Amino acid sequence: MKRLAAALVALAVVVPVHAQTQVHTPVLDKGEPLPPKRIFESPDISGPRARGVKLSPDGLSVTYIRTRDDDLTISDLWIADVAGGEPRLLLDGKQLAPPERELSEAEKARRERAGVATRGVVDYAWDRQARLILAPVEGDLWIYDVASRRARQLTRTPGDEIDAKISPRGTYVSYVRNDDLYVTPAAGGAERALTEGGTELRSWGTAEFIAQEEMRRHTGYWWSPDERAIAVAFVDQTGVDVVERPEVNATGARVVPQRYPRAGRPNAVVDLYVQPLDGPRVKVDLGADADIYLARVEWAKDGRTLYVQRQSRDQRRLDLLAVEPATGRSQVILTETSPHWVGLTDDFRPLGDGSFLWSSERSGHRHLYLHGRDGRLIRQITRGDWPVDEIEGVDEATKSVVFSAFRETPGERRIWRASYARRGEPTPLTPAGGWWTVTVAHTGGAFAGTYEDPKTPPQTALYRADGTRVRWIEANALEPGHPYWPYAGRLRAPEFGVVKAADGSDLWWSLRTPPGFDPSRKYPVIVQVYGGPSGPRVASNWHTPEDQILLDAGYILFRLDNRGVGHRSVAFKTAIDRRLGQLEVDDQLAGAAYLKTLPYVDGGRIGVTGWSYGGYMTLLMLTAPDSPFRAGVSGAPVTDWTLYDTHYTERFMGKPSENAAGYAASEVVARLGSLKPGALLLIHGMADDNVTFDHATRVMFALQADGKPFETMVYPGLRHRGGWTPANRMHRAMAALDFFDRKLKGPPATAE
Hints:
Blueprint: H1 2-10, E1 17-18, H2 36-39, E2 51-55, E3 61-67, E4 74-81, E5 88-91, H3 93-96, H4 105-114, E6 119-120, E7 125-126, E8 132-137, E9 140-145, E10 150-153, E11 162-166, E12 172-177, E13 180-185, E14 192-193, E15 202-204, H5 209-214, E16 221-223, E17 229-236, E18 242-249, E19 252-259, E20 269-276, E21 282-283, E22 292-299, E23 306-312, E24 317-323, E25 330-337, E26 349-350, E27 356-360, E28 367-371, E29 377-380, E30 388-395, E31 400-405, E32 414-419, E33 427-428, E34 435-440, E35 447-453, E36 456-463, E37 468-474, E38 495-500, E39 506-512, E40 523-528, H6 547-552, E41 556-560, H7 570-574, H8 583-596, E42 601-611, H9 613-622, E43 631-635, H10 646-653, H11 660-666, E44 680-685, H12 694-705, E45 711-715, H13 726-744
Parallel strand pairs: 4-6, 40-41, 40-42, 42-43, 43-44, 44-45
Antiparallel strand pairs: 1-37, 2-3, 3-4, 4-5, 7-8, 8-9, 9-10, 11-12, 12-13, 13-14, 15-17, 16-17, 17-20, 18-19, 20-21, 22-23, 23-24, 24-25, 26-27, 27-28, 28-29, 30-31, 31-32, 32-33, 34-35, 35-36, 36-37, 38-39, 39-41
C-alpha cells in the first residue's frame, strides 16, 4: 500500500541494513551446562519469539503473539510500529483469560489439531481497513480499536465462540457456537444466527476431524469479499464409526465415544452452501460422488466466482471447480492427477484480472504456474530440480510472487521472488543458509521475516520488498542478557552430510556432538527419527533446547531424512507408496551403518527415539533383523495402520481391502518377537484422540503375553500434542534420559 511504501522509504536512510548482514551468534569456547529444569521455566530459554506475525493492512504496524516472560503457558498480543520505537503490549492474555474457564470439547479439539499449546491470546485477525483487531480469548471474543487503543469484550456467553473471523470490510464478526454459524456487528449489537439446528453430528461451519487433522483446513466457512454472503460447509458425521476411547485423567476416567474415520471406513459427508446474509442459501454442486474431500474453498477477488478444490477419496485426483454463487452450478476448470497421490497446498491464489496462481508437481518437483480464468495454462513460473515449498505472498502491482523453496539443500529454507508476467530466474530475498519463514504484506511486497539457524534463535524483523531490513521486531540476539547466553558456549553447529539409499537417492543427515567432544574417544549415539511424510528433520534451524539435555549427558545426536520425507522430488517422496515402514527403515539402517564407520561412535551403544510416526519408526527399527539399535524410546506410536484415520493412511496405503499385503507388512505387533528384552520405553498420553491409546496397549499386551520385559510411561489427561505443560514435558525428557543412561552407558551388548 502507499502508506507502507512511504513508511519504508522514510526509513531507507535510517536503517540501510540488508538481510544478508543478519547477525549470527559468535562461536564461543566456554559455557555453563544447561540445567534441565531451566529449559522448562519462564522466561523462554530460547528468548522472546514472535509467532503469528502479521502486517497491518495499512502497512503501519506489525503484530505478533509472544509467550509471557513470567508464564510460558500464556501468550499475549504485541504490536510494533513500522516507523520505529519499542514494541508494546496490545492485549494481555493473563488479564483477559479467565483461569476458571473450561473450554468446550470442540475448541479443545480445534486447539489440538492446530497445535496450540498456550492460553490467553492464541489467535487474532485484522480487518482490512486496519481499524480493528479481533482476538478470541478462552471462548469469548475481544475487539481492539486501533484509534482509541482500547479493547472491549464482544461476546460473553456460556458456550465457546470458535473459529471467529472479522468480515472483509470490518462490518461483522462471525463465529460458530453450538454447531451453528452466527454473525454480529463488529461495533456491537444483537447477534444473528445464519444457520439453525446444528448438532455435534450434523454441524454448520466447522471443519470435520479429517480436514483439521490431515488436510490443514481448520475452518468450515468463508466470507465473500463484498460481505454479502458466506460459503458454509455442512458436515454430517452420522455414518462415521464411533470409536470408544478411554480418557484417563488424574482424578478419574471416562469413555469418550469419538467419531473417528479409520482407514477404509466411512468419512463424514460434507456439503457446501452459499448463504447470503439476507436471503435463502444455495447448495453448491460438488458432483455426483459424495465420497470426496472438500479440500479448499476460496472466493474470486470480485466475489463473482467461488472456487472449490475437490479431492477424490483415493487422493489421486484433485479438481478445481468454478462455482456460480447465485445458482450453485459448478464446472471443473483444472485437474491434477497422480498414480500416487496429489498433495494439498494453500498455493491457489486468485488474481484481480481473473487469472490465478497454482502449484503442481507435474514436472517431478513442486513448481508454480499461472492459469487463466478458464483454467488454461498461461506459463510456468518456476522450474528446476528443486521444489517450491509454498507461496508466501503476491504483489499484483509488480506482478510478482514471493515463495519459499528448498533450492540449495533440502535443509535450508530460503525466500525468493519471481515474476508471473514474464519468464526469468527468481530473485533471492534472503541469504542462503539457515531457515526463513515470512509473512508478506497484501500489497507492496514488504514482509516480516523470521530467521534461525543452529546457533541463532528465531529473530524477526521487517523487510522491504527487496530484502533490505527496515527494523527489528524481536531481535532476540544471543548476547549477554539473553536467557540462553550463559550456556551458549556449549552450542555446537551440526555436521551435515549424505549417504546413499539402495536406489541411489541422497539421504541427508545431521550429526551433533556433545560439549567437550574428543574425537579420540567413543560416544554413545541417539538417533532422533521421524521418518514419515513431512517436512525435513535435517534442517539448518534452531533446535529445541531439550536436545541439550542429551548432548550435555554425553550423547551424539543423529538425524537422517529417509525416502518418503517431503520437500524433495516426487520420486523421493512417493518411493514409499503402498508400503509404509519398509524403505524408511532400510534408509535408517543405512544411516546406522554409516555411524558405525565413524571412529568416535561406539557401535554397540546406539539408541533411537521418536514421537508419532517417529514412535512407529522406533518400534520398526528396534525390531529390524540384526537391529543395530540397543534401546529405543517410542512416543505415541502408530502400531497398526487400520486403526489410523482415512485421509492420512489411504493417501499412502490405499484402503486395507485394496492393499492387504502392504498393511500386513507395516504392522508392528507381528515384529515384536525380534525385540531385545528391556530395549523399549513406550510412552503415550492417556487422552490421545489422534493416535488413540489402543495403539500402545496392543504392544503392551503382546509383549506381556510373550513374557518380554519392557518399560512404559503414560501421562494422564494428555493428548497427542495438547495439554503438555512444562512440568510433564520435563518429566518426559528426564524419563528418556534415565532410560538411555541405563541402557546405553553400560557394557556394550555385543563386541565390536
